[in-house]
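[User] Once you have settled down, look closely at the record that follows, and write a paragraph about the fold.
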Amino acid sequence: MSPRPKHTPGPQEMPEEPRSAQAENDREPADELVEDTDECSAEEVSGETISISQSAVRFVEGQQVEVKQTIALSIQAEEMEVVQSGAAIIRADEANVMQGGAWGMLANELNVEQGGSQWMIAREVNMKQSGALVMLGGRINASNSGAVLMLGRHIEGQVKTVLSQEAAIGFGAALGAVLGLFLVLRRLLGGR
């Protein structure tokens, strides 16, 4: 048997090179829909209406932003939809987060379903099956959700908290007293 010759693909058979999101989306403002449905990464995406899917982006800024299965450092928008995505900071007038999370969420109206955050700060928070370390809001409506510390003017729904408002104030006062005592002892013992 003779050895089989190697097949070299012709120009029509060559696989397409992955497009560079850096070149297409990096710091380019868009007047129309900016859409990226392929897996890619970019520094900054900005425009009026933005839809990003399965990507990694540092900064996203626009009027209407939709991200799906994406990770970002910062997302800022008037209206935002975040689905199965994560970000360090989310800032919006109205943010809807579904099965997503962020270190910090800041909004006038924040709607979270099956999501979580270290910090949720909003005038109005609506959450279902979600959680936060610290939640601050004017009006908080929660269903089957929890937080370590929750502070708000009006709190409604099924909420589990580790610390109540009174307990948080007491904890803060006790922690302040202990730290103050350590500082006094340190100065008395000759430390700076």
